[in-house]
């Protein structure tokens, strides 16, 4: 199918640019594509709507493919069962189909939207839900993803203001994938941000998505970039010196502070060798300004020690 080929191209692009993080291999990305192929079988009407979206708004179509891929990969990582995964994939692929009813001058506006324009844009989840419900083909979780992907667990989302357990896990997986993909893509009003910047934004707004889910997403991506400051489960602070593909959650770090906050002699620690030792796991990333640490010279010191 055409969408299958398009998703494979999207998968390769996201792998090449590192936006899928270190946790997703080429093989697992292709497995996600095959899951979508299975999920899409028999949904001809939905495929036609997607073809129309591609013709009318190519940028939203590419975004939909990328969100679908991210949803599949993250859902597999979380252990969603096959039926949930297939329904989530289908819903993610079609999550913005309601934008067929959104004027293009709003979708492609290079500046900030007015309150009236934003009100029109916010209609797209309900528009998409009504459009696809008429097909009488899509399973319930997929329809929930289309209607509810802008809902937030703290009740701050739209269109219905749902909160907590009233939002299906598959919906929130898609919501996180949607925001991450949007941040790391070029938009008509700004340039793409890095995966690391996207993670920081998601962490800052974790209450909207669920802190546990955001923590899982960080682990899934393996996004502890070189030079980032992290807090270990012991309370110690360290700067990441080198990421490791085979152990994405356990990079080589340079410890800067003891658990009690005192400055310590700088020492390199390979967290992969201490994965089963309590206290030596990464708990969270930390903004350097929050603790008064300049990570640039520390990272340079660590790089020198690593090469010694």
UniProtKB/TrEMBL annotation:
NCBIfam families: HDIG
Taxonomic superkingdom: Bacteria
Residues in HD-GYP domain copies: 38-233
InterPro entries with a match to the protein in the record: HD/PDEase_dom, HD_GYP_dom, HDIG_dom
Name this protein carries in UniProt: HD-GYP domain-containing protein
GO molecular function, one term: phosphoric diester hydrolase activity
Organism: Alkalilimnicola ehrlichii
TM ranges: none
